[in-house]
Amino acid sequence: MTRILAILIAGLVCEAIGVVFLSKGLKQVGEVKQITAAEIWRVVKAGGTNPNILLGVALEAAFFVALLVLLSRSDVSFIWPLTAMGFVLTTLTAKFLLAEEIPPMRWLGVLLIMLGAGIITWTEKVKEQKASTAAPVLNGSPR
Hints:
By secondary structure, the protein is mostly helical. The chain has one domain (2-133). 80% of the residues lie in helices and 3% in strands. The chain has a two-stranded antiparallel sheet. Helix 1 packs antiparallel against helix 3 (51-73), helix 1 (2-29) packs across helix 5 (85-97) and helix 5 (85-97) runs antiparallel to helix 6. The longest helix has 30 residues, at 104-133. The chain is elongated, with a radius of gyration of 21 Å. The two termini are 28 Å apart.
């Protein structure tokens, strides 16, 4: 389980930093002022050449690769809820890299997410302990 958590943390760090770079790049590109072909082309062209957006996309792709590895090795009911820890890392990254103000109620939400992820991790540990203490099975029948 240590290897799974290490891959998860590495992936979530990529996701958190990637989202921050995407946000920064999109703010540099600016919002779509009108829905016209010329305006949409401007945004696509500016976004496709913006280094922050490109780095953000690359980091999000790295997260996706980590997620694929994790889902191939463990239960989706264990892995997917733990990806919510990305909210924690993204909030911290936004606070320190973008200097965003995070109100106390948002920090409370982050704390609740951490609590939920901790409970999920604990249930996986209990599942592993039960499996290791179960009676060995030979040829389909207990010894």
